[in-house]
Structure formats: C-alpha cells, structure tokens
Amino acid sequence: MKIKWKKSDGAVSEVIGAILMVGIGVALFSILYFIVMSYPFTPSVPSVDIVGSIEGSNIVLEHRGGDSLDQNATVSFIVGGIRISDTVGFFLNDTNGNNRWDIGEQLVYNYTVSGNITGLQVEATVVDRDSNSIMMMGVLQEGIVRGGSPPVFGTPSPTNGSTGSLLSFSWSISINDPDGNVFSWTIQCNNGQTSSGIGASNGTKSLALSGLVYSTSYKVWVNATDPDGSGLYTRRWYTFSTSSQPWSNRAPTFSSPSPVNGSTSVNRFHATNVTVSDLDGNSTTVCFWYSTTAISGPWTKAQQNNSVVANTTVKDINSSYSSGWNTQYWWKVTAFDGHVNSSVIYSFTTRSQPWSNRAPTFSSPSPVNGSTSVNRYHATNVTVSDLDGNSTTVCFWYSTAAISGPWTKAQQNNSVVANTTVKDINSSYSSGWNTQYWWKVTAYDGHVNSSVIYTFTTKTNTNIINLKPNLAYDNSSGSEHKLTAVELTSLNFSDDNRYTSYGSWGSTFAKRIEFNFPNISSGATVLNVTLNFEWARFGAQVDGARLGIWDGSIWTYYPLTLGTGDVLVIKYLSGIINTAAKVNSLKLVFQATSSPAKTTSHDWVQVDVTYT
Fold first, then answer.
1. Distance from the first to the final alpha carbon of the chain
2. Peptide bond before 367: cis, by omega within 30 degrees of 0?
C-alpha cells in the first residue's frame, strides 16, 4: 500500500502576518521619533521664591528658596509709574561671589538718589531670560503713580568698552531730561575720581581723569536724577581700557654690594663686587672706580668688564688701592646697557692697624728741600710728628761738604712733643754766598730712630750799579753840541730839572742825541740790565720818537709812545746787553721827527746793571 503525502500551506500565512506586524510597528515608531526630535526642547522654568519689601528708601528683593538665577536675568522696578530696568547683577549683593542670585542674597535698589519713595506706588518684576519666564511680579507698595520720564544718556566719549585711552583725559557723556526738568548728576570712576552737579540742564557732563595706569580696565558709573519732575533716575556703567605702556629702556640697577655700603673694619685690599641687573635683559659694560679722597672723587678706573650678562655678580679683582689702615675708601660702579649709563657709589673703612711702634716722621722743612737763593745764616726748622704720640729727642746736623757728610751736630732738642715744629737756631755755618749746604734731622722716640736730609743753596752775592751818562752829544740844531756838566747833571734824576734838545727835530730820524755811560769791571758777570728813560714833548709836540741801543756791533731801535706830558720808558735790555763788554760798549740815542720843527725835553737817563 503506498502512502501519498499531501503538501499543505496552512502555516505560511501566520508567519507572514507576524512579519508584517513588526514592520508596521517599526515604521510607526520611526515616524513618531522623527516628529518628536524635530522640535527644540524648551528649558525648564526655574522655581524660585522671591519676597519683596520696602526698607526705608531701599527696594529689596530677597531670594527665599528654590533655584538660583543667573546675573543676566532682568529686574524692573516701577516707582510712581516710572520704570527702572537693569540686570540682576547690577542690583545684586553677591555675598558668595559666584555671579548668581542664590538663596539669602538680596537685590537692593536705593531710591534716595532719585527722590523720596514715600507715597509712591512700587512694583517689581523679575524675568529669567533663559526660559523667558516671569519669576516674580507684584506691587510692593500702594501709592501715587505720576508721569514723566527719567534723564536719558547719550553715547559716552570714549565709547563703552573702548581701548587705548590716555593716562589723563576728560571722560564725558550727554545727559538730557526729556521733560526739560533740571536734574542732579554724578560721574564716578573706580579709581576714586568723581564729578557731580545739582540743578543741571541738558548737555554734556564730564569727569577729568588723571593718574591712570597703563593696560588697565576702568569702570565709570553715571547717575542722573530728576527729583522735582518725574522723580526718576537713570543709572548706567561703562568701561574703557588704557593703552599699553610705550617701550622704554630701563636703566641697569645694582644690589648686594660687597663690602656692604658703609662697612667698617674691612680687611685691606678687599676685592669689591656687586650684582648688576638689567630688567630688559641687556648685557652691560661694567666699570669699577675708586677714590681715596672723597665721595665726589677724583675717581680712578680700576677695572672694566665687557658684555656682562644681566643679573650677574661682577667682581673687581684690582683691590690694591685699599692699602691704608682705618681709612675710608669710596668705590663706584658704572653700567652701560647700550642705551643709558647707571652708577652707584659705596664706601667702606678698613680696620685699624694692630699696634706697632711707628717711627717719627718729618714735614714742612724750612728752607724747602732743594731751595736756592736762600739768605745766608738761615735758621732751619722742620715739623716732627709721631703717630703714636711719643715725645722725641731731635738733633740737627749740618754738612758743608756733601750729602754723605761728614756731619757736625748743630743742636739737640730733648722731649719734643709730637707734631711740633723744631728750629735750629745755630745757623752760623751757612755763611757762604752761592754755596750748597746739607742739613740732617734725627728724631728718636724711645723705640726707633728716624732721620732725613735736606739741602739748600745760598743766594749769589750780587752788585747793582746805576750808570748815568758821562758824555752826551746833541746835533738836533744841525751842528753837534756836547752837553755840559750841568746839562748832564739835569739827567741824573726824575725831578723836572730837564735838558731841552739843543735844536728842533726835522721830518726824518736824521738827527740824534747820543748818550755814553761809564764802564764796569771787565770780569763781571752781568745778570740784568734795565734802561730808565724819561722825556716829554710839551706844547708843540713831535710826530714820532725812538730809542736806539748800540751793543758794540749793531743798533737796535725801539719806537716810543707819544704822551702829552712826561713819559717814563723802562726797557729790559738783558736780551741784547748781557756781558761786561757789551755794557762797556753801550750807547743810547734818542731821535724824533717833527713837521713843523719842534723840540723835546729830557729828565732822567739811567742804566741799572746787576752783576756779580
């Protein structure tokens, strides 16, 4: 028996139906998701409990619970029908400093700057900007609602948020009352400077600012109140920033000197050092200087250091100058950074010398060592000093032979007080003319003997002779006239006993008066020759005059100054008359010119010769 299987489709419809149902469900969910997600979500509305009150002249809104509000939320107060609006941050007393209005914190609007709040209706509204929701709205005080508008502010100068302002300028803003009422106003900067006015009319108001700081932001508050009209005020704040400081080089500075300035008991030969700083990072040329005299110098350069890196300690290794015991020294440091030179002066005092006997010293000798032309029999003296204050035994010695002696004791002075001038009154040994002498001083202070040698030369034994004319010829008349003894005598002194030229002078130097003088010893050494010649041209005056000097070989002529009375001519002739032979050959001539012809008178003719 064969069994036949019959194919059945009974279960297929159930499976297909299930698949279709799932597909339909997914499609419906997708459409719903698309519709929902296509609409923006609206932020949730904060929940906050705000209580308003009037406390004297203040309108107070206090956060009593719920969510905190951002400082950008807006607050509006309507007082007497006039609205005053600003951000929460403007009125917020932010006690925790987080820039949000939290539980327990208050918004305070002081109405006294706008007028008296008594009897006026007060309303308040708080709006959260993020959710565009009113958080609070209500009437805090029933009262009068009056009309009018508060003062209106224009655009400030400089504009709000501006940068690059000067350190001193006038900040200004226009303030106008729409109702034409007078108003009071204040402008205050957070640097403490302020200006204000009462009973002001519409116009620009300003605040003079000064003493500002570079690269600094400043805030300016402006308040204007219409107390007699609307009773309202307008308050705003603005900001500006000052410009950056222009670059300027800062000079090098010095610190940490060693030795410390004003130090005492410093070791001798102490090497000085100092830290040289440059805030601009420039390398510097550093020089060390020292003075052993005073803070004003003079200064001697001790050392120079080139290309010194900023903020480096620089050392002066040349410390040889500070060699004294218990001595104050000054040291100066200069630093040049390529733009400007800085300097500083310090001082220190070396420590006292450990005690040891110091030998007597000598100073201020008389005659001065090496003196010449000293008077014979000159009493010698010298100051004897002892830095330890010991009295000394001082002896004077002399030598007429050489610096090496032999020495003869001239005088001894016992128990000489320190720093005393001691004199040798025995000066009989220096009796020669033009002679060199040596004198020695010894001083014994009970510990050590000191000595010093000086020398001087006595002056030369000189003679002075006054040579007066012993022979004279005058050819001013055209023929030669030999002066008589009486006429020669009239030339001996300046006494107005005159000799008048024998004739008149012509138009050239053809005529002359010649003077001759006595001789001196041919072996004399001439030191100096001086001519004294006094003449006059009274009344009718000559036109020119000159003197001629004959030294035995040539004539030397000197023009004379023409005076109106006596003219004394003094000529130093040592340049041309400098030997006994030239003195003995000396001739003097006087010549004059005159047109028409005139005469001259002569009072004194004398040649002074100094010789040995």
1. 194
2. yes
CB 235 within 8 A of CB 86: yes
HSE at residue 286, side-chain half, CA atoms within 13 A, is: 27
Instruction: Say which residues have a Cβ less than 8 Å from residue 258's Cβ, sequence separation at least 6.
Output: 272, 273, 274
Q: What is the pTM of this model?
A: 0.34
Taking 50 as the pLDDT cut, the residues of the chain under it are: 1-8
Q: Give the number of other Cβ atoms within 10 Å of residue 554's Cβ.
A: 8
User: 153: how many CB neighbours lie within 10 A of its CB?
Assistant: 19
Structure tokens at 358: 């110091």
Residue 96 to residue 506: CA distance in whole angstroms:
124
Output the pLDDT for position 10.
Answer: 52
Q: In 419-527, which residue ranges form alpha helices assigned H by DSSP?
A: 485-489
Q: Which residues of 28-44 are buried (b: 16+ CB within 10 A; e: fewer)?
A: eeeeeeeeeeeeeeeee
CB atoms within 10 A of CB 521: 12
Distance CA 606, CA 592 (A): 20
Q: CA–CA separation, 402 vs 453, rounded Å?
A: 11
Given a contact cutoff of 8 angstroms between Cβ atoms, the answer to whether 144 and 119 are in contact is yes
pLDDT at position 112, please?
A: 67
CB atoms near residue 204 (< 10 Å): 13
Query: Over the stretch 564-576, which tens digit does the pLDDT of each residue have?
Result: 778 899 999 999 9
Strands 169-176 and 203-209: antiparallel
What structural domains and CATH numbers belong to the chain?
A: 48-141 (2.60.40), 152-242 (2.60.40.1220), 253-350 (2.60.40), 361-458 (2.60.40), 464-611 (2.60.120)
Question: pLDDT, tens digit, for every residue of 319-348?
Answer: 788 888 999 999 999 999 999 999 999 999
CA 128 to chain CA centroid, nearest Å? 64
- Give 82-107 pLDDT, tens digit per residue: 788 899 889 999 999 999 999 999 99
Beta pairing class for 133-141 and 122-128: antiparallel
